[in-house]
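For this section, I looked closely at a protein sequence along with its fold in token form, which I now present.
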Amino acid sequence: MANTNILEVERESFHRFFECWLDEQNQHLHDLLTAAKNNTTSAATNPTTTAAINTSSTSLGTLVERVVKHYEHYYEVKSRWVKQDVLGMLSPSWLSSLEDAFLWIGGWRPSMAFHLFHSKSGLQLEVRVAEFIRGFCSSSSSSSSKGDLADLSSHQLTQVDQMQQRTVKEERDISEKMAKRQEAVADSSMVGLSHVITELMDAGNGGDDPVAEEDPGVESALASKEQGLEEVLHRADNLRLRTLKAITHILTPIQAVHFLIAAAELHLRLHDWGKKKDATTRAQSSQP
């Protein structure tokens, strides 16, 4: 029972860390939106010079690096907690039911980042076309380029496509590893152990908690299963972070800003929507 209480406190601690991390992400989103707006305004009103471009790129690059570091910090902290309670990290109590429904091995599916990337790029391209049709910009004007995800080069698109293929392949490999870990819960050792414990319970020799008191082999058996889950979760988190960083490296600083805006907006809004839905569900279920 004492170990259970400790794990509850530890999970609550990570919960508090996660809430603080979300607050910081919200602040980063504000900074990213401000940078994107300022970049658009500057491009439209100020003459473009090499010095101005270099200064802007450096400033935007610093912001992108700071936001990516924020993601790195999340996975560093999460990695430490995984070693203490992998089951809690695979079934996070700090997420809403909506977020839980879209989880892949304790987090977001890496290939989703590419769907996000293409969705944001497509939306910005639609805006560009609409502006062109309305006469706000012309195909021959240098100001028609805003440097966002509607201005991707063919080389960038090729790089993203190649990375997506590699990511999907690795993602499938990790999914297969997870499937094997899940199937292992029904291996001969677990089936045999569950039968032994059942016999002890039927014989009345197990006390109130036969799993904990009568057979230390139970803890050992479960520990080996948890270790396998821990390895898979570490691989999944590593791929998530590598995917995020790789996409931002392909993009220009201002394009990376727009990508990170889309990622933060989706993450924060899903969390908010999910919490509201859960609150509504609880309120309805409590009504007589």
In short: DSSP finds ten helices and no strands in the chain. Residues 104 and 236 are 9 Å apart (CA to CA). The two ends are 34 Å apart (CA to CA).
